[in-house]
Amino acid sequence: MPRVLYKYRNWEDRFQKRILTKNELYFATTNQFNDPFDASLPFSYNQEDLTDENIFKKLVTTREYRHPLESQEELEKHSRERMRAIDFKANDYWHSIYSDYKENINKKIGICSLTAKRDNLLMWAHYANSHKGFCVGIDKSILSALSAFNLILLTPVKHSNYFPKRPMFLNDKEQNEYLIEILSTKSKHWKYEEEYRLINFISPQTAIILPNEFIKEIIFGLKIKPESKEKIIRIRNKKFPKAKMFDTSIDSSKFKLNLIQID
């Protein structure tokens, strides 16, 4: 994992500038993302696991969790009735109940997306106001320290053409591992972002405040307004004097940005 991770920001957005003015990292809910698949993948079981025996056991286990006072006989009776009424092997049922699971994720989990790249043309265009914004380099060791109490996790994003397969039966540890896999698996179309995620298991749509030392670099967009740049420099000099600053320029022979360190 790289020692510095980056966050592209739009200085014209009063909330996005708070990463510098208030030392804030914001955790969005999964339904705020622009990718409709992001952290919202439906259940996908291996077809060979969908045997009558496994389905019956799964229904009993699920009902027992929801109705802990029912007797074993009642649990099995209701489960048999559901098996006769629904074609679980078609996988449609498991997809339908995922909407509740997805809603639960949005209520309880927040995600802050970061990247290993500070010179990605597309990310400057999409996330930094078409190169008119800025990019902040964040000390990875400070982010890693947030996971000390197992409330916030820093993890790389994996990329695939297929949804992760969910085992039929999971213990608590396996359930957490599967949840993390769901939250950190994206389509290969997004591989260019080289994304890392902070996953907040406390609450979504909240911000955490970090010490001044968390800022390692500030990179100015190619088209940032001079007055915006001046304001950022004043904040840097006051709060983050050790943070390196960089201007960006167009390369003379390749489709790439060059970074020039400034005082």
What does this structure look like?
The protein is α+β, with helices and mostly antiparallel strands and 263 residues long. The protein has two domains: 4-33 and 109-262, no CATH class; 47-104, no CATH class. The protein contains nine helices and twelve strands. It has helices spanning 18-21, 52-66, 72-85, 92-96, 98-108, 121-127, 140-145, 172-183, 226-239; strands spanning 4-9, 24-27, 110-115, 134-139, 152-156, 158-160, 185-187, 195-200, 206-209, 215-220, 244-250, 257-262. Strands 1-4-10-11-12 form a five-stranded mixed beta sheet. A three-stranded antiparallel beta sheet has the order 3-8-5. The protein has a two-stranded antiparallel ribbon with strand order 2-9. Strand 11 and strand 12 (257-262) form a beta hairpin. The longest helix is centred in the first third of the chain and has 15 residues, at 52-66. The chain is elongated and about 75 Å long. The model has no long low-confidence stretch (mean pLDDT 90).
